[in-house]
Fold each of these.
Amino acid sequence: MFWADKVASDIINSKKYKPYWVDDMKTPSGFSHVGSLMGPVIHSMIYRSLKDSGQKANYTFVINDFDPADDLLPEIRGSFESELGKPLKLAKSPDPKFKSMADLFGSDFVNAIKNLGVEAEILSSWELYHKGKFDEVIRQALDGAEKIQDIYQRVSGSRKKEAGWLPFQVICEKCGKLGTTKVFAWDGEKVSYKCEPSLVTWAKGCGHEGKISPFGGTGKLPWKVDWAAHWKVIGVTVEGAGKDHASAGGSYDIAMTICKEIFNYDPPFKLPYEFVLIGGKKMSSSKGLGLKAHDLVSILPPSVGRYLFARNGIKSQTNFDPEGTNAIPVLFDDYQKAADAYFEDGDKDLARSFELSQVGKIEKPPKVRFSVLAQWVQMPDMEEEIKKEGLGTWAEYAKVWVDRFASEEDKFTIQQELPSEVKKLSSIQRHLLEKILKELGETWTGEDLQTRIYELGKELGLGGKETFAAIYISLLGKDHGPKAAWLILSLDKKFVVQRFSDASKA
Ligand SMILES: [Zn+2]
């Protein structure tokens, strides 16, 4: 059974998680890495699978825009330091088209997930707090502060926080920062807080002390408590967590326990998942490190982007390293195989992975392999062929792959001048070029010309490699390239004849 269907059937069979409410969340603290699309996509697949089983289900995605800004984009360091510590919803956006950092980064991420067909209703944590939806859980958390401390200690084995610790942070009424405040008293109506100059290393508090009601958006719960609180407030019954949070005694376990013991709400179905590491270790030294969620739209069609995460599933960590490799062409090949399984009644899991990867109506992908297309887009005058084969959309992605990711091996350029490499041609190879050019006047199909060139080489005692190398060296200045006949036919006939003639005499 396909992994998403297995998860959905486990959820249904355990009979504990109705109504089915799938949720995931993200803090919009910067432009997200492409790997962060994994969560929304796998939740989308599970959501679809629940619905395909005839169940009613909801899917929400929370933007954690109440979280404090704790880091700055490298390009604005030095000029936006005053924004650090403020809630992201109040931190000034470096792009003036957006009101806040949360709006800028949040909408950037939402666009990226919508592109991948993630159908979740988007919720703003800031709004939920400000509408008073969290008031009840805030009271429960403040009243249960001691018990929450015990849970941290029991579940994670961490040492007990200092006496009087309270699980809440207030937006400082003087400087507007959230990340710097510490609440030290709770009287059942108001909390007392101090804005500490050195509570955190990344922001400096102003020293202000105040007393304020914790309700209605004046402040928020700390992360692990906040996570559990969201489940209860929204009514979540299914929310996964990446491996980094889902280790035994980690934040996922802590939030689950708080959910149950403090908020008296059944914790959601437990779904730890492994990541697709984009680029793996190599990434740190390559351009790929900067691969952002919003870049995916120009690199892969939406359905292939979903498929990248679908084929991996949730059980094993894999690397996807597009830089200077053929990882992207292989992904397209795999996607085509999954499509074949779907349309030709092949392997059921593969077919299902294709089906759940669709965005909008189900479409048959092209038959031509991506690696071949990547050669076509580097040849002149191939537009007609590309159009005829219905490859227009994929051709755009092939161009991007050639420009941004392909190794030098996979790139070629028709040399406008006779390449100096022709000096390496043997006399037999030169003779071969003369023979080929004499036959170019006829009308050829790619297949026939390819066979004919091979025969001509054979007649002269050349192997296939030497035969085609003569053509590549003359046209590209290197000894390998795309299928030679198609390359020749994509070029102006006069140009090829002249080139072969020049190369044979050089
Ligand atoms: Zn302050």
Note: The chain has 21 helices and twelve strands.
Amino acid sequence: MAKESTEYREHWGREGFAGTGVNVTRTHHSPDYISVTGPHAPHRLNVGAVALPERDDAEALPVAFHAGRTGVQLSVSGRAHAMPFVLSNVEADEVHFVQEGELEFRTAYGTLTGTPGDFVVIPRGIPYRVRPMAGSSLSVIVETPGALRFDPSPTFGSGLRRAVIGEDEARDVETVLLLKSFDGVTRYVKPTNPLATQALLDGPSPVWKLNLRDVPTDDNGPPVQFIASPGRDELFYNLSARHRRRPPIHNNVDYDELIFYFEGPGAWGGVDEPGMLTCVPKGVIHHGPSEDVPEGYYAWMLESRCTLRLTDAGAAAAELMETDLYGPHATTEGFR
Ligand SMILES: [Fe+2]
């Protein structure tokens, strides 16, 4: 438990970094807790620790580890073989963050390659096929019911790259098309290949990517946002190392805060494993490590207005987290 001061400054705030709030001082460190029982508990998990059938079975799909009532869902993919089908998510936009490996995303609206640190955005209803280009891979998929847009704040010259129509796919190939909805997968057998595209006629491809390293950090303000959904329901930020005083103890009452540590070399407080995701549910007072780490590290944050819960697969890989430096909590009693 933190004992560095007898006066703690604390912030209660609305709308994440964008709303109103109030500051108080207390003589106790309010993020500390002795134990917790129930679902609304801070936790962490390394996405690489989730059991992934895709490693051995090309027909398998990614495994969800967080899900919420509005349809927001986070999954982990460990694809080791090309998809033997084409997939289209009819409920949500998808952001694929590539942690390890090199993946070809071939879609009906162009092709691009995802490499470590890339956010690959595939909107709703876009048929696509993923193929690992070199060995195994690891990626995190964020699904949002609202249409995601590149929405930098503060603005920066984007390193955004659109999918391009490349070499045409063979047209006359019988193809399995899976439509993914809230209640499972519907399997179509098509006489031709949905990915065979002659030309893109109007406007840019709706499929694009951006690398985390191309999102700047700002030493003076809140973290830099780069993707948003309607109503600011889901927001993506760069949360990498920067020269700034430690954030105050705070209560983010409108958003769950999920922070994903991509790579070092520096440790971010109690987090030093690539692929580690920390989650502080909304309304849980917390502190969080300093971002001023001279050795540097890369991390990103998802703010989710939808309250997220661990799935059974997520809970099997998760541990309770303390809310000071985001290390493991001393007890796991009552967590699952
Ligand atoms: Fe926070």
Note: DSSP finds one helix and 25 strands in the chain.
Amino acid sequence: MEPVFIKIYDRLLKEFGPQGWWPGESIFEIIIGAILTQNTAWGNVEKAINNLKQHNLLTPPELHQISEKSLARWIRPAGYFNIKATRIKNFLQFLFSQHQGDLLQLGELKLSVLREKLLTVNGIGPETADSILLYAFGKPIFVVDAYTRRIFSRHKFISEKASYPEIQQLFMTNLPQDVGLFNEFHALIVHLGKNFCQRKPRCGKCPLSARVYFRP
Ligand code: SF4
């Protein structure tokens, strides 16, 4: 285990504080949010989710019932709304055909089984599946995103071309299997990436600029 991962985590937590992820009042809201957030800013996702809430559509049976076209209209603010409506419908089709629309039943599956099932849904890739597993169902899995790759390759822990499973493995083997820690660490990485480790890094003001946070 590389203690530097915990050092990085502690440093970020001290600097930024708890991030309060994932915003969402129910398992279903978190799942819908995880699909809607693909390639868009969170503010746009919130608008789409509020549309669904205002029209009492944010439950599996309601969304399963409405047409894909109507769904696309309600989620328009999230961008790529036709594609995302299809993805949400794909997820609902899976949920109702294999699990009677019951999210609690789905959540009782073992992590590896549920992950495999989620990945069979067209439009749910590893990052979305892992976000659902961690944030909606509280399963201990580390979510990897573009910021994770950028930050940890700049700090020489991985190559820029490392695959998703390679990066995930690095975190899973160097951190305790703790849902709370995985939850917070990913959120802190996103905050760091958005505010400091941008395309042009702002190392001068970044909390991870000291040598101790780089692989020797
Ligand atoms: S901005 Fe610089 S110091 Fe901060 S995470 Fe990125 S590469 Fe590291």
Note: The pocket of iron/sulfur cluster is lined by residues 151, 154-155, 192, 196-197, 201-203, 206, 208-209 (CB under 6 Å).
Amino acid sequence: MKTTPFWWEDAPPEQGLASPPPESPSALIVGAGYTGLSAAITLAEAGMSNIVVIDAGRIGEGASSRNGGQIGNGAKFTLKQAERRFGPDRARQIMEDYDGAMPFLLDRAKTLSDDFDLNLCGAVTGAHTRNDLASLTAWRADLPQTERDRVTIHGADQVNRLIQTDIYRGAMLQEGWGALHPAKYVRALARRARELGVAIHTGWRWIGGTGGIARLQGPEGTVVLRPDMVLIAVNGYAGPELPWLRRRIVPVQSYMIATAPQPFDAMEALIPGNRVVADTKHVLYYFRRSPDGTRMLFGGRARFRSSTEVQSAEGLRAFMAHTFPSLARAEISHSWLGNVSFAMDFCTHLGRMPDGAFYSSCYNGNGISMATYMGHRIAEAMLGRSGHDRGVMNTRFPALPAYDGRPWFLPMVGSWYRFQDKWARWRD
Ligand SMILES: Cc1cc2nc3c(=O)[nH]c(=O)nc-3n(C[C@H](O)[C@H](O)[C@H](O)COP(=O)(O)OP(=O)(O)OC[C@H]3O[C@@H](n4cnc5c(N)ncnc54)[C@H](O)[C@@H]3O)c2cc1C
């Protein structure tokens, strides 16, 4: 079993320039994932030159080449909950930001020359309990008519039309959402950025800076830059060099496995039409087939303590066998993990840190479309475009008292969530 992402078979992360970046870039973007690259594209498309993206690793080596490749949009809270926290106007704009993510991704995709297996095959949400099915039904009923037509609710006796499992009490199918190859997608963004003149330097870590100074450490030692602007786009990989951000972000490891190729027809029977699937549990399963349809790619929070790819593979295999008993003995060819980040209020946050650097963070596990769109939105702020201060931009980014970015509480919170999932099902 390999302990690297299945996606890297076709698209391993690329190196950028190893040389030190130029001393005075117009914009220095820290993090070469979807957020940083999307921001770079928007800045370059607006005519800015001398844009530099750096990454401590290779291009997209963070979550952007490791994720499940499921695309859609949606907030982790309802409009009513948002209204209570942000007031009616801001809440509506925040929902517009979430709703705008998927259309923005599809527009940006049209500008990319590389193929990345985009497939709007539809997304299934499995209902863990009858209550969850009722909530999905109510959520659909609140949608505007045009969107409602693209969403269908299926009772327990119809779930097997969408997915061959008996663990769900019903399901929702969302047309127009679907899948892409995450590592090919991040490559395609990097190619577009380079075509627009953006310089990408890898192996260079931002180690601090303030007042117009940025200190980087890389293959040639430490260098000092004087960028006009800085964007921190490190999401779940924020290290001790970013204490302000670390106090506001809970990084969570998410794990995935891939099976060795299985007979196509057997896989087509399990998830017809190669749709993508997630469920309504607190500690959810998310899964899909590989773009060629022959492998199962299964993800979830196998453990809440930091664990290795080998340890997590066992947990995920058990989850997969629970969902699809026919795959209980399937060979696992790959097991990998990556960091996602959550905010204390489960909202995405963009804005400026006290030292003046811009940031965009916390897509709460739904980051392919959101990171692409929020990269664009934060670039609008960097360009000073009128109207940029709306939605998730500049909302209060809460910090947890006495928290330094090491989430010691995760095992307890994880156990509590697992208990709630079990309890809800037991009562069902
Ligand atoms: C296993 C897994 C499954 C997921 N599944 C899905 C899914 O199916 N659908 C979905 O929408 N989302 C999913 N996500 C979430 C999604 O991948 C992320 O939200 C998204 O990739 C975030 O992109 P980003 O550019 O903000 O951050 P990242 O891609 O994580 O990039 C951050 C980069 O910053 C770099 N960095 C950090 N610190 C420094 C520094 N000091 N100096 C220089 N560079 C630095 C890192 O090396 C890294 O490359 C998943 C994530 C994981 C881990």
Note: The CA atoms of residues 165 and 325 lie 9 Å apart.
